[in-house]
């Protein structure tokens, strides 16, 4: 590589053509899944006012404090590339009067999100996220439906050994009492925790349970569980959620340390785990956020949702050796052997495409042998060969790349030959 040649920034990657079959397959399964569950697509801007994420995601979270890409635009407004979808979804819900729609309002989005974090397997500073939200109802059955969207997606993709991790982190009534208990417990272990957790203890105690540092794990394991301090409403909600999961036969595990990384979560939090894929088992995470609309200046509006990174999905598919359908190559490859034949090929290729027949042509003055190798690499089923001899008779050779058979037909028969079916190219 030349010394001054540009490279992509750290933590940013290109999705190359050979990876596209995975992406196209995942996107296809996503579209079918949201169709089955009745969710409508919502496209959001790539950037928002920084205050939306500061208030919605929460000060003291790693996303706001360490990971957001923020800049000041020419109107001196602080702008942030979106680090997640939920805050923007709720902003769009409130701004566009979606509260008048039948409840729950069921939405999905997909696109790039941006976080300045340490690049690792399946996680990049720009990654693509699939997001599902259901807004306007507190029914725990809606929580289970959101979880079922995720479950159906991963089952349809062929994931093995799926299970849920679930917890309840309470609400504005019962969480303050729990946080007091948690802080009292941690103050006895201040010398055992990492520096970041020392700061979380003062700013955002619930994040203590989400720390990944090895030295903090023994303290986290012995921390008091939230589920033992839920108010009546949260306790009933969580019991109903688990009853529905039992009814569906979905395997799940109560995970007392599961709190997620954003301030807007209330009551239900969950992850879907796919076992045997290395240290990072979670393929998605989400939960309920009944207080988010009020934080953003709207009326009380319950909501629940989840997000999943497509890069993480594809990495899991590869690690679990999930087979995917191959993207078909062009049906026809056209190979001209002379310049005059090339003019006919250009016109013929245009006619084929107008008829809905996928085709490509060879460029440059390469030999027929090189053309056949190229057609094979592109996965073309047929090669149409036109030299001076065929041109003088207004006929063209058709070679079947699968069976090797070859025949000659008139120019005017080419489109109908492919429109009516492949047929046989033997004489």
Give a written overview of the molecule.
- By secondary structure, the chain is an alpha+beta fold.
- The chain has two domains: 17-174 and 230-319, Bira Bifunctional Protein, Domain 2 (BirA Bifunctional Protein, domain 2); 332-419, Anticodon-binding domain (Rossmann fold, 3-Layer(aba) Sandwich), CATH 3.40.50.
- 37% of the residues lie in helices and 21% in strands.
- The chain contains 15 helices and 16 strands.
- The protein has an eight-stranded mixed sheet with strand order 1-5-6-11-10-9-7-8, sandwiched between helices.
- Helix 1 packs antiparallel against helix 5 (140-157).
- The radius of gyration is 28 Å and the shape is elongated.
- The two termini are 51 Å apart.
How would the blueprint of this fold be written?
Layout (H helix, E strand, L loop, with lengths): L19 H18 L2 E2 L5 E3 H7 L5 H6 L2 E3 L5 E4 L4 H10 L9 E10 L11 E10 L4 H18 L4 E7 L6 H13 L7 H9 L13 H5 L10 H17 L3 E3 L11 E9 L7 E7 L3 H4 L7 E7 H10 L12 E5 L2 H16 L4 E3 L6 H11 L3 E5 L1 H6 L1 E6 L5 E5 L3 H6 L8
Parallel strand pairs: 1-5, 7-8, 12-13, 12-14
Antiparallel strand pairs: 2-4, 3-4, 5-6, 6-11, 7-9, 9-10, 10-11, 14-15, 15-16
Helix pairs in contact: 1-5, 5-9
């Amino acid at each position: 590589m030349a010394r001054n040649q540009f490279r992509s920034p750290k933590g940013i990657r290109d999705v190359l053509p050979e990876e596209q079959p995975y992406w196209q397959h995942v996107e296809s399964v996503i579209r079918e899944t949201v169709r089955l569950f009745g969710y409508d697509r919502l496209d959001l801007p790539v950037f928002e006012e920084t205050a939306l994420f500061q208030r919605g995601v929460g000060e003291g979270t790693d996303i706001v404090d360490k990971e957001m890409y923020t800049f000041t635009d020419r109107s001196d407004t602080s702008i942030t590339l979106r680090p997640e979808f939920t805050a923007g979804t709720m902003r769009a819900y409130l701004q566009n009067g979606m509260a008048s729609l039948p409840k729950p309002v069921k939405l999905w989005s997909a696109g790039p999100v941006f976080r300045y974090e340490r690049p690792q397997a399946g996680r990049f500073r720009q990654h693509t996220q699939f997001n599902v939200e259901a807004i306007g109802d507190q029914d725990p059955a809606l929580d289970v439906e959101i979880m079922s969207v995720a479950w159906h997606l991963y089952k349809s993709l062929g994931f093995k050994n799926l299970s849920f991790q679930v917890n309840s982190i309470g609400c504005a009534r019962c969480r303050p009492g729990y946080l007091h208990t948690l802080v009292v417990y941690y103050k006895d272990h201040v010398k055992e925790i990492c520096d970041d957790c020392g700061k979380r203890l003062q700013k955002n105690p619930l994040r203590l349970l989400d720390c990944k540092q090895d030295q903090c794990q023994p303290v986290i394991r012995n921390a008091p569980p939230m589920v033992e301090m839920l108010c009546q409403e949260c306790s009933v909600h969580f019991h109903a959620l688990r009853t529905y999961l039992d009814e569906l036969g979905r395997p799940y595990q109560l995970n007392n340390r599961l709190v997620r990384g954003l301030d807007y979560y209330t009551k239900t939090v969950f992850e879907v785990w796919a076992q045997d894929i290395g240290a990072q088992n979670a393929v998605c995470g989400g939960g309920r956020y009944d207080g988010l609309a009020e934080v953003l200046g709207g009326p009380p509006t319950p909501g629940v949702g989840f997000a999943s990174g497509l890069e993480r999905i594809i990495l899991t598919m590869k690690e679990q050796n999930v087979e995917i359908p191959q993207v078909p190559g062009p049906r026809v490859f056209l190979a001209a052997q002379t310049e005059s034949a090339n003019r006919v090929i250009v016109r013929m290729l245009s006619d084929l495409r107008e008829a809905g027949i996928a085709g490509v042509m060879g460029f440059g003055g390469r030999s027929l042998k090189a053309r056949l190798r190229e057609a094979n690499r592109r996965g073309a089923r047929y090669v149409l060969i036109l030299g001076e001899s065929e041109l003088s008779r207004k006929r063209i050779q058709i070679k079947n790349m699968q069976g090797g058979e070859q025949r000659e037909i008139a120019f005017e028969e080419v489109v109908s030959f492919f429109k009516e079916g492949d047929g046989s190219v033997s004489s």
